[in-house]
Amino acid sequence: MTADALIYHPTVSHYLRFVATTGMPSISAPQYFFGRDKLLRTLQYFSRFYAWYLFRTNTPPRLIAPFEAIKKQFALTRKALRLGKNVEHFKAAASAMDDTKSKDEFLRYCAVGRQLGYAMYLTLDMATYVDTAGIWKLQSTKRLQQEAYRAWLVGLLFNAVAGVYTLWGLRQKDACIDKADGEGVVESKKIERWDPCLMNLATEADGHCRERASTNLQLVSDLCDLTIPSSALGYANLDDGIVGLAGTVSSLIGVWATWKKTA
Predict the structure, then answer these.
(1) What is d(CA 45, CA 97) in angstroms, rounded to the nearest whole number?
(2) Average pLDDT in the 14-32 region?
(3) In the chain, what are the helix, strand and coil shares in percent, each to the nearest 5?
(4) d(Cα 67, Cα 45) in Å, to the nearest integer?
(5) Model pTM?
(6) Are 134 and 128 in contact (CB under 8 A)?
(7) How far apart, in Å, do the first and last CA atoms of the chain sit?
């Protein structure tokens, strides 16, 4: 009976959906089946940070080697798991372009730019896999990887700009509320009080509050991710400690978001 209770517990079913590698994710929730990737990404970037930390504290190389191995091997594993995922983003870009019912044209074009940036990043990244995996050496691998980082940077910038624009729009809606009216004061407080909503977005009734909380969270994730291509391209002088820590934060946000989506 105890074994049955454990096996059929809702948390086990939730976990299986979270780490599933089969099924068709929807365009509206493209990360629905990528919980496994988010976990690997978290370990990859934490290992990058921790290897840097151990090196800076004069730790013997034999103790650093396992974390260097995790960083490299998990990066290669994730690269393999991403093969073919570019098609999903090309389709999402086409869907966003054809979405004539969108209430905001600026956000629609940002969505198109974001999806095309991600699609090009995954396409170029996929082209470097045979070399990275040691299957076939390519002379153009380094150039392709640099272009992939540029495409990823463009996609992240479009998403970050869309997030800032969305927050600005919510502030404008807040300004339009008549504070002199009793109901207006209540609604205003709901919009301003986004931080508690972050603790329980699923049960918060106020639409503006949920949107502001999720937009803030996504913006933090995008800003953290921007450190990765910026550093790789030499646009920002960031060491592995900063990049690894930023990647860990954005990965944990991705783990949390994917866990919520698969509930």
Answers:
(1) 34
(2) 49
(3) 75, 0, 25
(4) 10
(5) 0.80
(6) no
(7) 25
